[in-house]
Structures are given as structure tokens and as C-alpha cells.
Amino acid sequence: MTNNPSKVHEPLFHIIKRTAMPKWQSWIVRIVSVLAALIVCGVVTVLLTGEDPIQVYVKMVEGAIGTERRIWTLAQNTAMLLCVALAVTPAFKMKFWNIGAEGQVLAGGLASAACMIFLNDKLSPVLLILVMLVVSVAAGAIWGLIPAFFKAHWNTNETLFTLMMNYIAMCIVSYFSYEWSVPKGSGHIGVINDATEAGWLPSIGGKAYLCNILVVAALTAFMYVYLKYSKHGYEISVVGESENTAKYIGINVKKVILRTMLLSGALCGIAGFLLVSGTDHTVNRDTAGGRGFTAIMVSWLAKFDPLYMILTSLLIVFLQRGAGEISTSFGLNDSFSEIITGIIIFFIIGGEFFVNYQLKFREKEANK
Predict the structure, then answer these.
(1) If DSSP codes are grouped into helix, strand and coil, which group holds residue 14?
(2) For residue 282, which of 56, 37, 113, 84 has the smallest C-alpha distance?
(3) Which of 14, 15, 201, 346 is most buried, judged by most C-beta within 10 A?
(4) SS3 sequence, 277-340?
(5) Could you check whether the bond before residue 202 is cis, i.e. omega within 30 degrees of 0?
């Protein structure tokens, strides 16, 4: 009696990384992904609400850009999300998984608020803003440097460490929100220097948010040049590809980790400064508004390219604001708008998957 070896069945398909895809093909994949998402959203809308999908999409567009004020708000929100995305990009390109942008933004925002409260009558308006900027950058940089120091010297898990730092920052902000609250004990600071506007970024041409947008535009240009053409940007890329290769060619990996996270935290500090000084004029544990996590998706979708991040930031903010208008106009709860946003983002991420990978199906066995 002979034992026949069991036949090994190959899986139906393998997922393999693409070597390259022409740009025009990649954009077709992305456009098809968005169109497919809109079709699925339309079906979900009819099934769950009975509303006309076309009217829903019209309201989404109106909610984002329906008025001049909404356009400026869209631009401001896009700029702030882009600023945080620029901050996390150097770390992620280095494969340092900085999940702590939320806490680093809060650290910068808290520093700005402290300067506004305690120095508003001691410094001239221009000097006060400069001091706020410097202190916010330092606070964000320190908050980013702490996990980098432990990673560089003891190889700690940066994902857990930076995530933990978020909660510590939230608790610190909550504590000072109670200590500085107006009225005392309310737990809310309220608008700081409402009467004098000390520490507020000035309006330019009557546009309150234009200063924030211009600062972020300058940071975008700086980060594009820094990552693409500078020696530091090259070292970040090499460390991200292989630490062993970086060490072999003489790059000080510990120094690169510390320097990169110092930059990442500093940019988050600037975001906190802009949010407190240029937008909210106060601080609380929700000042970052989840941007630290959303920015990761913005950076990844743009393949760590600061210029493409402008588009991905705009797309995500457009969806968020448009979906919010849907809930208001049709009397739906916020969950429905989140469903619509989630479906669209899911298809966009799926499109990126097919841009970078392909399915190789099992070849049919030849008939014997």
C-alpha cells in the first residue's frame, strides 16, 4: 500500500507590491475609487433615510463652500490639519511612529495660553506674540523629544510612548483649565483677553484666518525643500529605509531620531500656537480636535509629500464639513455624517492599496 502525499492547494491569489504604476493610471484608480464611494454612499442614503442622494451631495458641497464664510472656514481648517500633517511626516518617513501629535499640539497651545494670561499687560502686542511663538515651539519640541530620547537610547516602543504622552497632555490641560477657569471652578477658561485681544494674531485684509493660512503655506514650502533637497531630509529617508544601512554609511541614527522628533514636536507646537492665538483664543483638552490622528492619514495618503498633503487635507476637511451640513439640513444625527465620511475615506484608502499592490491570481493547472 502506497501513501500518496496530500496535495497542497495554492491560495486563489497573492498580494504583491507593484514595481511602478504610471501616474495617469494611478489617478484613474483614485478617481474611480471616489466615484465608487459616491455610488455606495447614495445607496446607503436611500436605504437609511429615503432622501435623494443628489440633494444630499448638493448639501454637502453647500456645507463646505456654500458661502464666503464657509470657504474661509474650510481654508482655515485645512491649513490647521495640514500643519499637523507636516509635523508628523518627518517622523513617519523615518519609520518613527509618532502617534503623539495630539499631545504635542496641546503642549504648544497650553504654553501660548499661559503667555496670554500672565504676560498680556507686561509686553507689547508684537513682543507678546513672538514670546508665545517661541514658548509654544519649545513646549511642543520638548514633548516630542521625550519619547525620542527613550527610543534612541533604550529602544522603547515609540507608538505606546507617544500615545501615553497624549493622555498626560490632556490631563495637564484639564488641570490648568480648572485652575485658570473663568468663573473660578467652572472648568472652562473662556475667551482669553477678549477685551484687549492681546496675544491674538492680527486680521489681514479683514480676514481673521488669513494669517494662519499664510504661516502654514510657508511651513509647507519649507518642509518640501527640507525633506526633498536637504542633507537632513536625505538622512531621514536612509534611516527610514534601513538603520543598519544608515549606520554603515556613517549616519548617527540616534542623532537623526532626536533631531527629527525635535522638529516634529516644534511644528506641532506651532500648530498649537496658531489654534490658540489665531483661531480659538482659548485652550482646552479638545483644542487639537483629533487632528493629531487624522494627520497620519493625510500624510500617508500623500506619500509623505508636503505638496500632495494640501490636496489630501482639503479633501478630508471638505468631507467632514460637508457631512456635518447633511446632518443639519436633513435632521439626521451626527452618526450618519460619520458613516458617509467613513465610506468615502475607506474607498480612498482602498484605491491607494490598488495603486501600491496588485492581486496575482493562481494559474490554472494544465490538464494532464
Answers:
(1) strand
(2) 113
(3) 201
(4) HHHHCCCCCCCCCCHHHHHHHHHHHCCCCHHHHHHHHHHHHHHHHHHHHHHHHCCCCHHHHHHH
(5) no
Cell numbers at residue 34, please? 471616489
Alpha carbons 27 and 24: distance in angstroms, whole number: 5
Angle 327-329-334 (CA atoms, 0-180°, nearest 5)? Answer: 10
DSSP 16: E
Local structure of residue 88 (DSSP, 8 states) = H
DSSP 207: B
Dihedral of alpha carbons 303, 273, 165, 339, sign: negative
Q: In tens digits, what is the pLDDT along the chain, a chain of 368 residues?
A: 455 555 556 777 778 877 777 888 888 988 899 889 888 988 888 888 888 888 888 888 888 898 999 999 999 999 999 999 999 999 999 999 999 999 999 999 999 999 999 999 999 999 999 999 999 999 999 999 999 999 999 999 999 999 999 999 999 999 999 999 988 878 889 999 998 999 999 999 888 899 999 999 999 999 999 999 999 999 999 999 999 999 999 999 999 999 999 999 999 999 999 999 999 999 999 999 999 999 999 999 898 999 999 999 999 999 888 888 887 777 777 777 778 888 888 898 888 888 888 877 777 654 44
Residue 328: how many other CB atoms lie within 10 Å: 12
Nearest Cα to 199, choosing from 111, 259, 271, 284?
Answer: 111
